Amino acid sequence: MVETAYAGAQAPARHRAPSLRADFTISQDWNAYSPEEHDIWRTLFHRQESVLKGRACEEFLAGVRALGVVADAIPDFRRLNDTLQAATRWSIVAVPGLVPDAVFFEHLANRRFPSTCFIRRRDQLDYLQEPDVFHDVFGHVPMLMNPVFADYMQAYGQGGLKALGLGALHHLARLYWYTVEFGLIETAAGLRIYGSGIVSSKGESVYCLEDPCPNRLGFGLMRVMRTHYRIDDFQVTYFAIRSFDELFDATRPDFTPYYAELAGQPDLPAAMVLPSDRVLHRGMPR
Ligand code: HBI
Ligand code: FE
Predict the structure, then answer these.
(1) 195 lines ligand 1 (CB under 6 A)
(2) pTM to 2 decimals?
(3) Pocket test residue of 28, 77, 104 for ligand 1, highest count of atoms within 8 A of CB
(4) What is 13-281's CATH topology?
(5) How far apart are CA 92 and CA 133, in angstroms?
(6) Do residues 144 and 153 lie in contact, with contact meaning Cβ atoms separated by under 8 Å?
(7) Extents of the domains making up the chain
(8) Phi-psi region of 46 (alpha: psi -120 to 50; beta: other; left: phi over 0)
(9) Residues 120-178: pLDDT tens digits?
(10) pLDDT digits over 42-68, tens only?
(11) Contact status, residue 124 vs residue 147, Cβ threshold 8 Å
């Protein structure tokens, strides 16, 4: 079963574009946001700002500060782009929701991050199926201010286009899931979070580092690309990189031989720990 990263929920009609461009981009229309929508952003921002102290990695927190992403209101992509383009030549483009894989990779391969611009309802504060502007702009964009991670995301997009051609997307999607969305990093002060799916989630920001249940393993490229993941609950295994350079260096080679090797190996259940794993914490099955 090829997990898709997200189930296909739909954005509220207001932000589903009447004029969807061929590359699936729309205009953010910042003036269309209601005071209630800005207030939902403020609620989410304040919650994460406090829970991420001592939990998110410095690169993420520095990115939030450097971008000028604050609690006051849903950021205007035009403002963010002035800063982001100057820092790492990335741009945010607004999309109405999940876009087809090939479209998503094409944008990433050209240093364009496709960000949704609708925000979740107040009754979805703790979980929503598909990314909203808080997940994308608060969760993903700050890491694009880090030059190494910015290059990794472009390499991922280029790799995604190749993987599509090779029918190997399900392997590469796991790399994205266990790094970009749910990655941890080892630091002198201990494990810290950089994954966007975690930093935009109050509960998982604590669970991923402190709960005894999940495994915490050292990152391995082939290990991650073999491993199933959960899309509707906290992860049962987290992988920790030693540095963003390690992550970027792992994506330098052409993956074609990796996919050939993976085709001959069984996938691994998300909760499994192998004798060859570098075990930082062996979880307790729930
Ligand atoms: N579209 N807008 C958007 N955001 C995503 O994160 C996204 C997507 N389409 C496909 C996708 N992610 C994943 O299926 C790929 O990473 C494999
Ligand atoms: Fe995401």
Answers:
(1) no
(2) 0.93
(3) 104
(4) Phenylalanine Hydroxylase (1.10.800)
(5) 11
(6) yes
(7) 13-281
(8) alpha
(9) 999 999 888 899 999 999 999 999 999 999 999 999 999 999 999 999 999 999 999 99
(10) 999 999 999 999 999 999 999 999 999
(11) no
